[in-house]
Design brief:
2 copies of one chain form a homodimer. By secondary structure, chain A is of the alpha/beta class. The first copy, chain A, contains 15 helices and 13 strands. Chain A has a single domain, classed as Alpha-Beta Barrel (TIM Barrel). The first copy, chain A, has helices at residues 36-48, 76-84, 103-116, 131-134, 145-163, 221-230, 241-256, 279-291, 295-306, 334-346, 351-359, 371-383, 399-414, 427-431, 441-444; strands at 8-13, 53-56, 91-97, 121-126, 171-174, 179-181, 191-192, 197-198, 213-216, 233-236, 266-275, 365-369, 389-392. In chain A, helix 2 (76-84) runs parallel beside helix 3, helix 5 (145-163) packs parallel to helix 6 (221-230) and helix 12 packs across helix 13. Chains A and B meet through helix 2, helix 3, strand 6 and strand 8 of A and helix 2, helix 3, strand 6 and strand 8 of B. Chains A, B: Keywords: Flavoprotein, FMN, Monooxygenase, Oxidoreductase. Chains A, B: Pfam families: Bac_luciferase (PF00296).
Amino acid sequence: MSSSRKLHLNAFLMNTGHHEASWRHPETEPQRTTDIRYYQQLARIAEDAKLDSLFLADGYVLMGNVKYRASAGLEPFTMLSALASVTERIGLIATVSTTYNEPFHVARMFASLDHISGGRAGWNIVTSSGDATAQNFSLEAHPEHSSRYRRAREFLDVTTSLWDSWADDALVIDRQAGIFADTEKVRPIHFKGDTFSVKGPLNIPRPPQGYPVLVQAGSSENGKDFAARVAEAIFTAQQTIEDAQAFYADVKARMLQYGRSPEQLKVLPGLSPVIADSEWEAQEKEAELHRLTIPEYGLTRLSELLKVDLFEYPLDGPLPYDKIPTVDSINGNKSRFQLVVDMASRENLTIREVILRTAGGRGHLTFAGTAGQAADLIEEWFTNGAADGFNIMPPHLPGSLIDFVQKVVPELQRRGLFRTEYEGRTLRDHLGLSRPANGYWSASG
Amino acid sequence: MSSSRKLHLNAFLMNTGHHEASWRHPETEPQRTTDIRYYQQLARIAEDAKLDSLFLADGYVLMGNVKYRASAGLEPFTMLSALASVTERIGLIATVSTTYNEPFHVARMFASLDHISGGRAGWNIVTSSGDATAQNFSLEAHPEHSSRYRRAREFLDVTTSLWDSWADDALVIDRQAGIFADTEKVRPIHFKGDTFSVKGPLNIPRPPQGYPVLVQAGSSENGKDFAARVAEAIFTAQQTIEDAQAFYADVKARMLQYGRSPEQLKVLPGLSPVIADSEWEAQEKEAELHRLTIPEYGLTRLSELLKVDLFEYPLDGPLPYDKIPTVDSINGNKSRFQLVVDMASRENLTIREVILRTAGGRGHLTFAGTAGQAADLIEEWFTNGAADGFNIMPPHLPGSLIDFVQKVVPELQRRGLFRTEYEGRTLRDHLGLSRPANGYWSASG
């Protein structure tokens, strides 16, 4: 590995935190999950620590059981735009689905967010899951996996063409001559595909970053292929360094067939860290969250993921493997399904143990230990082909984020793995990604 | 009129200003039309003057000819969210079309903006115009006028039901008992209409204002009827006090058939004011903008509005009335079409004069004079049943907005017509509108 290679750290924000019981933790403020000042405080903590970016997951349905969990919050475009006003450097990554949106709107919103933030926007491209989502958009059923990915690929083609519909130098602004824009450099795209026909041009000039940073989070075969083709960062859930190495090698190898270099995509596994000054204390902090977990919530969540009613089985017995369907029959979140089944069977976990193991990170790697131990894990994965950085999922907010930035980040900086100051202004700068040339105007001159 | 009745003033922001030549004016900054700091500066000017709200028009197509005009800027949801972070009181009104959007997304974005701003969101409901818009959304042609309004009515029913899908007291947040929300007070809406089937509930709690303030801008028969049924403020274009009085009386009378009281809707005609210390100076300032006007741009704009190629006629001759179609054949912007034809024929204007008369306000009332004269006009319309306030359209920005707030607003305050301090925190407070009761939870108890 080159010594100049730097680790990337993303703060994955989620209302009171990623642990499903975080809203019951005495240090969280669950009454503030729709209060923008709360998120502004989190954004400043992450920016003060020089993290690459903030990230928001999203879905178009009320997730989980709101009786037992703080699961309804602000919408990403509006929230990140509001955060852009009170930050200067940190990247702002919004999850937006290609299944239930129009490419013209999505291209425009990201272009606008990128202008507003001075080039800090990122798009986590998802295809959504579940019939309940479809039923909020006048459809009966969620489209099937491979058709969603076909639509996603075409959606991306439309949005990138729209961003490229203005040349970077289209604005002339010659007051004397009375020429605002060079209309030879603003053109309709006349896109005609299987799903979309979009004339263009976009009604906003090309974003400062050319395109927002394109991020992907699916780890299914279709997901990995899509990531290899278009993504510049990938959020993934990996439980072991071996699995992470295999995933890392797989997606980077797939990039070659699309003529892309492996450095053009940053692999960022999720990590939900509980940090304390001693290992014992960290484990006690984690146990405190586990004690606040509501079994009914975990059973509901796990039953939905595994498509089997776990309320009918003993909490302290094994998963009913013979009742769990095969991964082929899962429509959405295939890779998370497989990961949880594999983990439970590999480690002989009881249903209760599976609930607790996924209560903090929903299948992402959880960790409880000292800052040195966390830095060791991060360094090991980073230097051994398992990760280009991490998607940090604080179990409770702001406490676990503060612990991470005050204890772990300085240790990573001491080891020369993480920046001590931002070197650039845009999210592409932070991630070491080049600004995409304009696909139309560079080709035609 | 009651002495407690107060005037409402909205600042209609538009890149370098409403005059189409504003970007050539020496005091504007056309290179900043995608710079959020520029709009933050405008927002602060308007808020310091205690105006009710900021308003952004919108469309999903590159409008006009960008060769001759600064016509591409930021998207309203992202821009107003970014402005919410740097303001405290002023209302934030976004234009969003019901023709090219999904009600779930729109309900959610407005709920999010309303939470982010602490109850300052408003929705200017439009149905869009033009086949070019349709062609950015995989359609050939723009839907016909009355079908757009049918969709708009159903769209509104869905969005209000979604905002009402959470009772105002749905959040319990009892950490000890482990109850986050009372799921008896969060319900699916199971909406089934001609166009939309939406299950719900929304994935964000009810907005602070219940619903964002509902605003409408169409003045066609369908538009007036829609406004009378649902709107709480209406932006309208009126050239004379007589026309404004007729319009005012018409929409307020129509409200009765929907069981609404006339005070529940504020009629706000557009006014594009050029203010100076003397009438002569104001006229010279207006003439300076007119001299910067580009005839090709005006001819293109007017030809598009009137559906006739005006390049074939002498600039200093009359409009070719026999070639202009009837209003029935116009699909979109019917009322503006009629207003411009009527004005030209009533005042015997040449084509050049029509271009100049509409270059500043696109059919809205333009005014050049002293602060006292402007206050006289505003007071006359306000006290004689022509307006509840005005939608102020500064010809160039920030200059004409600064002139208005520094010269006209203090005069209106001296006359006791306009507030000297905000009395409430929400846009509903400023407009004197009540917070809508929850349509579902109040009915069922």
